[in-house]
Amino acid sequence: MPERLPDLQQVRYKDFDEAFDRLKTKQSPLWLSNLRTKAMKEFRQIGMPIVRELSFPLKEDWIYTDLKKIGESSYQTNPIGGQVDGNTLGSFEFGDNDWHRLVIINGVYSPENSKLTKLPRGTIISRLSDAIVENPELVHQHLGQYADYRQSGLTALNTALFEDGLFVYLPDGEIVENPIHVHYVTTESEKSLALQPRTLVVTGKSTNLRLVESYSGMTESFYLTNAVTEISVESEGSIDHYRINREGAGAGHLSTTQFHLESNSHISSFNMTLGGELTRNDTNARLAGERSVVRMNGLYLISGSQHVDNHTAIDHVVPNCNSYEVYKGILGGRSRGVFNGKVFVHQDAQETDAKQLNKNLIISSGATIHTKPQLEIYADQVKCTHGATVGQLNEDQIFYLRTRGLSYDMACQLLTYGFAADLISRLQLDAVRSSLDSLLELTIKDLAVA
User: Fold this and answer.
1) Both 363 and 405 in a single domain?
2) N or C terminus of the chain: which is more exposed, having fewer CB within 10 Å?
């Protein structure tokens, strides 16, 4: 753990300390107050991962991504709410009117833009703040049990300071037919906002749901989103999870997503990053029950001076589990990408099947990618593969398309689209697949111009 000068730390995290003191004055269950206190203590010890202050091994995880600007900025930490025009918000939405929707604007729940339909008895889709009051024992049982705040300063900060988010609970055997969309929106403010969204999803045995998690910025000014998502699925359960980052151009977006899978359960996750000045996604899965399967796919399209860092970790704890991971990046301008994927196979995790692949397409001379797929295997009977590629568009393919009447720019755009479209085509939710396919086409055109 890095040593820090107490006076520097006190000044640097003054806004977060004040937010914590404000939350202490609010009435909350004893267990939640204790959890916040423990998490804040951990954050004060660990702090933000600013590279020059880190020591091995933590420094290795952050060597290409420095949070100096985020760690030393001043913030408005009180949720301030706000209004968003319906048409503007609609352009960021997915699906039809029958979806369950929860919209949080600048940290405050927006009832006029949300729709939480009545559900069968025992099934809960609600604001996390409401669930803490109405179902405290249930939230207490799961909150903070999967994303470990003792190992991450960013997770600790969110755990200490979150005020709202989404809570989903499905009892055994329940299926939520209509998808759920939680939409975290940030708009212009006088001072840079620091938002701590929290999403908690817990499902029982033989359950099924589809969840879309969106982060949208409607300002180009600097602000911070530090999000934590915990998703636990019991035996025979299935979750389809989509995470879409369309933050504002000046945003810092930090996220931790933790999946927990019991026996015969399935999680399919797709993470798409388009926005933000600096993005760090930590996506982790723990396969704790036999014959569980996780699919983790991701797509990042960046240009200008954007920086995107995807760190993934898949933990095979027990035998007979499968994990499949494909991340693709398209980088233009002077952008910088990072991919670090780790697969851990424990000694008891025999008959593991794990496949990991990272592919990157560089479409400008100024873009950079750092990629490091990793396998750490302590079992004998396994099938594990990993790989990474970095390349540019094939000139022969461009020439071929030009002989068929396409311009040079159109040929490049078509090949770039083809590189990424196979990930979009795999998505099971029609409304999301259609919307993201259109968004992919528009983004590729912008990348080519940038």
Assistant:
1) no
2) N
Residue 87: pLDDT over 90: no
Domain check: are 94 and 119 in the same one?
yes
DSSP string covering 409-433, please? HHHHHHHHHHHHHHHHHT-S-HHHH
Q: How confident is residue 438, by pLDDT bands cut at 50, 70 and 90? A: very high
Task: Please report, as a single letter, which amino acid is at residue 347.
Answer: Q
According to DSSP, the residues that pair with 210 across neighbouring strands are 240
Structure confidence at residue 447 (pLDDT)? 81
Question: Using CA atoms, how far apart are residues 92 and 84, in angstroms rounded to an integer?
Answer: 11
Q: What total number of domains does the chain contain?
A: 2
Cis amide prior to 6 (ω within 30 degrees): no
Looking at the structure, tell me whether residues 366 and 404 fall in a common domain: no
Q: Which domain holds residue 277?
A: 80-395
Q: Which residues pair with 300 in a beta bridge?
A: 273, 329
Tokens representing 96 are: 């039809």
Q: Is residue 57 part of a domain?
A: no
Give the DSSP per-residue string, 370-414: EEEEEEEE--SSEEEEEEEEEE---HHHHHHHHHTT--HHHHHHH
Q: Is 153 in the same domain as 301?
A: yes
| Confidence check: pLDDT of 49 > 90 | no
For strand 100-105 and strand 108-109, is the pairing parallel, antiparallel, or unpaired? antiparallel
What's the predicted TM-score (pTM) here? Answer: 0.94
159: left (phi over 0), alpha (psi -120 to 50) or beta: alpha
Task: Report helix, strand or coil for 170.
Answer: strand
Phi, psi of 122 (to 5 degrees): 100, -20
